[in-house]
Amino acid sequence: MTSKLTYWGSIGLAVAFAAAASPAYAAGTTAGTSITNTATVNYQVGGVAQGAQTASDTFTVDRKINLTVAEVGTVTTNVVPGQTNAVTTFQLTNNSNEVLDFALVASQITGGTASHGGTDTFDATNVRIYRDSTSGTVGSWDAADTLVTYVDELAADASATLFVVADIPTGLANNAVAGVTLRATAREGGTASTQGAAITETAGANTSGKDTVFADTAGVTGDAARDGSHSDNDDYTVQTATLAVTKTSRVISDPFNNTTNPKLIPGAVVEYCIAVANSGSAAATSVAITDPVPGQLTFNAGTILLNGTVTGSTCNADGTAGGSYAAPNVSGTIATIAAGATRTLVFRATVN
C-alpha cells in the first residue's frame, strides 16, 4: 500500500519598524533629519524557523518655513505730541522646523484705517526696532534691549519680543493716528551674529535632499500667504489736551452804588476771570497763566484765586488763594486741568 502524506507548514510573519527619530508635533521633526524604517519578516517552514528577511527605506525630512508676527495687546499705543521713544510691541514666533534668522522691516501705512480704528493721518519719525533682552525688564523696552535689523538664530518653536520705537512730531491734533507695520522674513540660519541668505522655496517634485516649503499664512495688506514672510500692524494715537481760553470781567462795586447796580466809574472794583477749558482727551499739567493788568487799573492785593470752576459761562468764586503779582503781571499755575474740565484764575483790580 502506498500512502501519501501532505503537510501544511505554518509560516509566521512579524513586521517591526525601527525609526531613527521620534515624531514631534509642534514645529515638527527637525529639517534634514534622516528617517530610516526597517521591516523584518520572520517565518517558519515545517515548524522550523527560517532566516529573517529585512528591507529598509530612508528619507530626509524637508524644511517647513512658517512664522508669525503678532501685535502684543489689543489696543492702540497712546502718545502725546513731541513724545520721544514711543513703543509698540510685537512677538515673532518661529513655527518652522529649523533654526532660522529673520530679517525685520518696520514701515508705516499711508492713509486708510489703522489697526485699532481711526484714519492714519501722520508719520512717526526715527522709527527703529529693538529686541527684548533678558538682562533688563522683560516685556518692556529699556536701555538693556538691543537695536536690531534682524533676529539671529531663532530656534524652532521659539519666540522673540520686538519693540518698534519711534518719535512723535509736535503740533498734532487730538486723536491723530499713525499706523505702523512690522514684517519679518525668514532667512537661512546656522551662523551666529551674521544674517543668513535669502530662502527660496523648492520647485517641482520632491527631491532626495532637504527641500523647502513655505507654510506661512497671509499677514496684513500686501503680505501674501506662503511667501516666507509674516506681518502685523499696530498704531500710535495722539491723546493730548486741547485748551481754549476765555477772559471775562464784571464790576463788583463802585464808591457810590457799592454792590447795588455798580458802574464802571473811577474807584470801581472789577473782577477778571480767565477760564481755561480742556476739550482734549488728556490732562493738561502745569498750566501757567499770565495776565498784565492795564495801566488804567490798580491790582488789588490778595485777590488771586486759582483752580476755580465755572457754572455755564459764569466763573465761581471757589478757587484757592495763590498766584503772584509782579507789576504789571498777575500770574498763577494750575497743576492739572483734566480732560473735559474747566479751571479758572480770578483776580480783582480798581479803576484809576
The largest pleated sheet is described as: 6 strands, antiparallel
Q: Using the coordinates above, name the CATH class of the largest domain.
A: Mainly Beta
Gyration radius from CA atoms, angstroms = 38 Å
Q: What is the rounded distance between the termini?
A: 159 Å
Enumerate how many helices there are, as a single number. 0
Shape: rod-shaped
Q: What structural class results from the helix and strand content? A: mainly beta
Task: Report on this structure.
Helices cover 0% and strands 46% of the residues. It is built from no helices and 27 strands. By secondary structure, the chain is mainly beta. β22 (310-311) and β23 (314-315) form a beta hairpin. It folds into three domains: 7-61, no CATH class; 65-238, Immunoglobulin-like (Sandwich); 243-351, Immunoglobulin-like (Sandwich), CATH 2.60.40. The model is unreliable at 1-25 (pLDDT under 50). The strands form eight sheets. Strands 17, 18, 20, 21, 24 and 27 form a six-stranded antiparallel beta sheet that branches. A five-stranded antiparallel beta sheet has the order 6-8-13-10-11, with no helix packed on it.
Brief descriptors of the model:
disordered N terminus; 27 strands; Immunoglobulin-like; 5-stranded antiparallel sheet; single chain; 6-stranded antiparallel sheet; 3 domains; 352 residues; mainly beta
Explain the layout of strands and helices.
Blueprint: E1 34-41, E2 44-45, E3 48-49, E4 53-60, E5 63-65, E6 67-71, E7 77-79, E8 86-94, E9 100-108, E10 125-131, E11 146-147, E12 150-154, E13 159-167, E14 177-188, E15 212-214, E16 229-238, E17 243-253, E18 269-278, E19 284-292, E20 297-299, E21 305-308, E22 310-311, E23 314-315, E24 320-321, E25 324-326, E26 329-337, E27 342-351
Parallel strand pairs: 5-15, 7-16
Antiparallel strand pairs: 1-4, 2-3, 6-8, 8-13, 9-12, 9-14, 10-11, 10-13, 14-16, 17-18, 18-27, 19-26, 20-27, 21-24, 21-27, 22-23, 25-26
